[in-house]
Design goal:
The protein has 345 residues and is of the alpha/beta class. It has two domains: 213 residues, NADH-ubiquinone oxidoreductase 51kDa subunit (Rossmann fold, 3-Layer(aba) Sandwich), CATH 3.40.50; 103 residues, Ubiquitin-like (UB roll), CATH 3.10.20.600. It is built from twelve helices and 13 strands. It has a five-stranded mixed β-sheet, with helices on one face. A four-stranded parallel β-sheet has the order 3-2-1-4, with helices on both faces. A hairpin with an 8-residue loop joins strand 9 and strand 10.
Length: 345
């Protein structure tokens, strides 16, 4: 069966006439998930996200709900939420679409997350080159504050949270969470030593901090809308929801594709959705998660205890699943496959 898309995050922004303003977002059910969240206890929101099985989308794939549970709530220090929207990996442009075309979706997820961890200050660390994107986010934040979705006394709950957009300095290493925190503090963007500097304990300003990628922030809104148990049915056990894949290289239909986690192989992604290589060429290898990940050659076979072993990068095998990649000492990175082609002979 050919691979198909399952738009969730991209469902609205692809609709004709959809705009970035708050009124349009509200007409499409915007901020209803936030209303649901603030009616629950923060710990119940955390539980919903943990039940959902949502994982990070920044490379490590750590369970989002588990990360929130690690937050040091006994220190007496304020907690911070930091959203990693740096997206400096070459060939990666999935988060940019959310920021430029549906910013309120991400902001709603930020508000829900901040409520869940009781953070009264959130930062969006955006790539410095996204000048227009930063302006879009700042306008969206102002709109949300004016309607009571952000800022003081959110939706009459008595809870307040301010969101600040911070443009980065164009440093690649700031995609790593502790390097990002250093940059956010006004220092050189250089990774911290772990331990002791685990962000959930010693993060921004040496306070408990949750760092999440922009994509799972957009997913959080859907977790609350579906409910954790129902959301967990999207994708596969251990990796729920959708993955957004940005495909570049000499294929017929490069672009962004949102697919249920684990429901398509790389071959299906490249041939069914992207149309295969350009005429007269054949795919030689792919870089599955940005330039920092291992090159996978077509026909390469891996030794390991995989669910469908042996696994290869051929036409029908090697699902882009986080668990599979870990077992072959690989990673999904930023989900930005780049295909290398060679002339047919």
């Amino acid at each position: 069966m050919p691979a198909v898309e399952r738009p969730l995050i991209y469902a609205n922004l692809r609709k004709p006439g959809y705009t970035v303003d708050l009124d349009c977002y509200l007409r499409h059910g915007g901020y209803e998930a936030l209303r649901k969240a603030v009616a629950l206890k923060p710990e119940d929101v955390c539980k919903e996200v943990e039940t959902s099985g949502l994982r990070g989308r920044g490379g490590a794939g750590f369970p989002t709900g588990m990360k929130w549970k690690f937050l040091d709530r006994k220190s007496g220090k304020p907690a911070y939420l930091v959203v990693n929207a740096d997206e400096s990996e070459p060939g990666t442009y999935k988060d940019r679409q959310i920021i430029y075309k549906d910013p309120h979706q991400m902001l709603e997820g930020i508000a829900i997350t901040a409520w869940a961890i009781q953070a009264k200050q959130a930062f969006i660390y955006i790539r410095g080159e996204f000048i227009h994107g930063a302006k879009i986010l700042e306008r969206a934040i102002a709109e949300a504050k004016a309607k009571g979705f952000l800022g003081q006394n959110i939706l009459g709950s008595g809870y307040s949270c301010e969101v600040v957009v911070h443009r980065g300095g164009g440093c690649y290493v700031c995609g790593e969470e502790t390097g990002l925190i250093e940059s956010l503090e006004g220092k050189r963007g250089y990774p911290r030593i772990k331990p002791p500097y685990f962000p959930a304990v010693l993060g921004l300003y040496n306070c408990p901090t949750i760092v999440n990628n922009a994509e799972p922030m957009a997913q959080v809104k859907h977790v609350l809308a579906f409910g954790g148990a129902e959301f967990a049915k999207i994708g596969i056990p251990g990796d729920s929801g959708t993955h957004i894949w940005g495909v570049s290289g000499l294929v017929k239909r490069p672009g962004l594709y949102e697919i249920e986690a684990g429901k398509a192989t790389f071959g299906e992604l490249l041939y069914d959705l992207c149309g295969g290589p350009l005429d007269g060429r054949k795919i030689k290898a792919i870089i599955p998660g940005g330039s920092s990940t291992k090159i996978l050659k077509v026909g390469e076979r891996f030794k390991g205890k995989l669910a469908n072993a042996p696994s290869s990068t051929g036409r029908s095998r090697h699902p882009p699943r986080l668990q599979q990649h870990r077992r072959v000492r690989h990673g999904l990175g930023t989900a930005a496959p780049s295909s290398s082609t060679t002339p047919s002979r």
